[in-house]
């Protein structure tokens, strides 16, 4: 009988130990589940924050991209206009300035014959003097600054 009692006590102790371990395992499972849910909620909140921040950053990038695109478009148009103007000036020769041509011819004649150039200047000076006298004698005509305004009939 001693063997049966010892066997019964061992069985009882192992049963109680199994029951305690099962209760402890259930408690650990519940605790782990609570921590997992808390972590999931924190992760969800963090993801929402990242989503909002990302959305704001993308909106700012979109605004800056629009400004950059407009700036680049304007710069390209300005560059195109500049190149077009340069090509037009190179392709279509500009009219020579008559005053510059007369000045160059006078300078060249002065270099060849300084005395003749001096006589030419004297002749031109008399012409300038006569023109100036005629302008002084003519009364200057004042432009009519008053305008008649026509009004529409309503």
Verbal overview:
The chain is 84% helix and 0% strand. It is an all-alpha fold. It folds into two domains: 1-94; 96-135, no CATH class. The relative contact order is 0.02.
Head-to-tail CA distance between termini: 132 Å
Can you summarize the main beta sheet? none
Summing up helix and strand content along with how strands pair, one would put the structural category as: mainly alpha
On the 0-100 scale, what is the average pLDDT?
84
What fraction of residues sit in β-strands? under 5%
Helical element count? 3
How does the overall form come out from the CA principal axes?
rod-shaped
> How many structural domains can be distinguished in the coordinates?
2
Question: Secondary-structure element sequence?
Answer: HHH
The number of strands is 0
Q: What's a quick, concise take on this entry?
A:
With 154 residues, this protein is mainly α. Helices cover 84% and strands 0% of the residues. The protein has three helices and no strands.
């Amino acid at each position: 009988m001693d063997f049966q009692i010892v066997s019964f006590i061992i069985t009882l102790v192992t049963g109680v130990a199994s029951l305690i371990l099962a209760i402890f395992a259930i408690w650990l499972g519940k605790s782990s589940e609570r921590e997992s849910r808390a972590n999931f909620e924190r992760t969800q909140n963090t993801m929402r924050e990242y989503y909002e921040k990302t959305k704001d950053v993308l909106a700012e990038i979109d605004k800056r991209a629009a400004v950059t695109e407009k700036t680049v478009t304007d710069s390209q148009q300005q560059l195109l206009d500049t190149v077009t103007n340069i090509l037009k000036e190179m392709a279509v020769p500009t009219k020579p300035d008559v005053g510059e041509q007369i000045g160059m011819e006078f300078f060249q004649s002065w270099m060849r014959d300084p005395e003749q150039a001096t006589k030419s200047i004297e002749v031109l000076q008399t012409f300038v003097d006569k023109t100036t006298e005629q302008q002084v004698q003519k009364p200057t005509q004042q432009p009519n600054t008053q305008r008649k305004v026509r009004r529409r009939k309503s």
